[in-house]
Design goal:
The chain is an alpha/beta fold. It is 27% helix and 20% strand. It has 8 helices and 12 strands. The strands form 2 sheets. A 9-stranded mixed beta sheet has the order 1-12-10-6-7-8-9-5-11. Strands 3-2-4 form a 3-stranded mixed beta sheet, with no helix packed on it. The longest helix has 21 residues. The chain is globular, with a radius of gyration of 24 Å.
Length: 274
Amino acid sequence: MRQAWRAWVAAGLLGCAGLAVAAEPPGLWPTLQVLQGKRFVDLTHAFNPGIPHWPGFDPETRTTTYSYTPGGGSKGAGFFAQTYTLPGQWGTHVDPPAHFIEGKLTVDQIDVREMVLPLVVLDVSRQAARDPDYQVTMDDVRAWEARHGEIPAGAFVALRTDWSKRWPDAARMRNEDAAGVAHYPGWRLDVLRYLYETRGITASGHETTDTDPGIATSKDDYALETYILARDRYQIELLANLDQVPEAGAIAIVAFPKPEGGSGFPARVFAIVP
């Protein structure tokens, strides 16, 4: 009888051990395993002191504060550390609402739930190649929705113009004519109103230095950027590699540091592609 009891206990323990081995990973880990099996695309330019930027900002400066070996750092040696001085709107960056509108959200006040979003790509690269002053139209948006269905609420909508392929050539990015007028593509107000007010998107972004087209910013007209930020929504400027992600179905991860009361900051943006 005692031997039978011991056998039963042993079998139970082995069964429990088997169940433990076969158990599903807890919580969201299986979801992460699925996502890690997908393709990741970095939508961010690396920045340095010489990159294209809004002409009203001073260039970045950086110094080596500590170096691996003696003599290379301004304060000492033993490890590598740098000091950076740059505008918040530098490289691929976030513009929070407070960048233009006093009293609106600053960088640190943007909810982290607004950083993981469905990615919608409006591809007008062919139009921009023919006309550098091209502004995305409602026909472009309707064509996207005819192919993929309604733009989902809460989406991050990125305007693909392939302008990022001109990076890091500042002259080609600005594309000025003999009179000093810049020619680069941008958004349109009716499109932005449709996206934010009708479809209820969370944020938008583009490859150029500005929301507004170059012919407008050359006259200090930033009405389109003002529209977005006045709605207490953020945007991302100077995106990269939008030609490597699909028009629909990917997830955008939009991350940036959290300076208290921040007016902008370099961002790290990437897509998880199905």
